[in-house]
Structures are given as structure tokens and as C-alpha cells.
Fold:
Amino acid sequence: MTSKDLNSVFTLFEPYINYSKLRSLFILCIVIILRSLERKIDLVQMTSSNTPSTGDKGLVVSFGEMLIDFVPTESGVSLSESSGFLKAPGGAPANVAIAVSRLGGRAAFVGKLGDDDFGHMLAGILRKNGVDDQAINFDRGARTALAFVTLRSDGEREFMFYRNPSADMLLRPDELNLELIRSAKVFHYGSISLITEPCRSAHMKAMEVAKEAGALLSYDPNLREPLWPSPDEARTQIMSIWDKADIIKVSDVELEFLTGNKTIDDEIAMSLWHPNLKLLLVTLGENGCRYYTKDFHGSVETFHVDAVDTTGAGDSFVGALLNQIVDDHSVLEEEERLRKVLRFANACGAITTTKKGAIPALPSDCEALSFLKRQIET
Structure:
């Protein structure tokens, strides 16, 4: 077809062309392309933030429990009805340490395990995943904790614990590796270590030493109500160290438990704010997360995946967050940068729900970045 022919065709259809709509469509296409490029630039920046060698990164020290989760091989059945279980290492603080290491960061774990096959297996898993285990103690008189996990059809879980007492409950203040704790840039902990002595005193000592050394304190209560003598005791002890933390992450379930209010909104969330807090996070499962600082607040959507097991998703989220901010706390003061970090953390949490067990499902930095790239492309 010649150019003369093309001009004839254009002349034929010109009366039917709506230039106003065509212009709007062109502008829309430009906006979509620019947004796609912006996301790809964010991905490149996220990749470059993970490029420094592990030895150059600040240390995230995680304090608390590590245990064996027995996860049923089928979902939607009770423990008694399950035909079998998969043995999976777990424990929220340990999950966070491994999440950090998997993403290219430096992490150490402080806690106590039984001097038994399970305890030494767990220590080996930490080492295999690049987590410093020099601050682990072994107890000859108590066993490593076990937890049987019931998976509902929606991937949510319920727990039955065997730990009366387990080795993690018996960690004493004099057994702490204070030199390691003082070297932390971020010190992360939960609330299970507050339930009984002597572990409670060890927790308080470790937190005090880390704070005095200048570490950022990160707190995820990780409520496990069956472990506490009563709901009131759980609430009291969880809140007893609330004003010490710089970063606090709670789930929507924990927000309801701590405030006594079923409404999940900004006013209820901010009732948990304290003057020294730098960042309050409320995770909302498939609805993403909300963030609050003294200067701004907002929400970040998550990524929709086919969830198999939500165990460890919150720990994966926390590990991703801490790994991104350990060397640059100013992220907490700049909303756009914080939103990008939380988007990455949401991606890590989402990936973790697609496999059974916590630690086996935690993503590497390559997996997380590939996942984000696929989301951009689709």
C-alpha cells in the first residue's frame, strides 16, 4: 500500500475520529508507562540497597524463643484428625533473624534450647541460614519447646504448646552474651519471654543493655494467649515494656486484644502510641498494613497470593523491614521511602504464606525481588 493509499484511508475515517478521546487515551498511556517505570526504578533501588556485602551491614539481634512447629499435612482438620505432621523449625524471634539473613542482612539469635536432638538441630538450622548462634545456651534439664499447629482451610492457624517448662523459659540474666547484644544496631524481641522467670529478667536485662548501647528496639508482641495464665496477665505484661520500644508491630487481632475494641481504625491504633515511639505498624493480613509516625500515617496494600499457611508471615514482614532500616533509621522519617520499604515487607510476608512452615517459607532477596518484578509486569 502506497502513502497515497494510506492518505485516502485516513481521509475516509477522519470524520469519525474523536480527537478529544484520542488525546485522553494517549495521556493515559503515558501515565501508565511512567508509573511502570517508577516501579522499576524502585525495584532497582531496592536491589542496590541489598548489594553491600553482609559484613558491611549493621547487626540485627533477635531475642526469645525457638522451637519445633509440627504442621499438619492437611488443612481444615483438628489435631486429632490429622493423618500426619511436618516437622518445621519456628519461633517468632528466630524466624525474624533468619528472615533478615535470607534477605542479605546480618543477624544473631539470643536464647536457650534444650540439650537434645531438637535443640542442636535448631542451632544447626540457624547456622545453615547464616545466623550467628554464639549467644545460644543449652539446658540439660529441660527440653526444646514443641508446638502443634492446626491449619484452618483459609491458612490461619491455632496452636497447642508443649513447654512446661521448656529450655527457652529458663534463660538467666547471667547467661546473656552482653558483648554481642551491645553490638546490635537493632534489637528485636517478643512477649513470650516475659511470661515466666528467669527468662523475664533475662529479657529485661538484654533490652536495657541494647538500649544503653544505642540500638533501635523493635517489639512484636506475638500474642499466644494459651501460654499466658490469663488474658489480663498477658495484657499487663505485654504493655509493661511498651514505652521502651522504638518500633512496634501488632496484628489486627493483637490490636483488638490490647485495646478491647473490635474497630480497626486510626484512632484506636493511635491509642497505643507513646511519646518515644518512632513507628507503629498494624498488619492486616490480606489487607496489607497501616503505619503511624509522629508526622504522618497511611496504609500500604499487600499482594494477593494463594495462601497455604500464614505461619511466619508477620515475622517475614518484620525481618524485611528491619533489614531495610538497620543502617538508615532516617527511612522512618520519610514517608515515601518508608512506603517503599513496607511494600517490600508486604511482598516478603505474602511469599511466606505460599508454603507450609515458617522458616522453610521465608524468601531470599532474589525471590522477593523476582516476585516484585512479576507484580510489576502483570
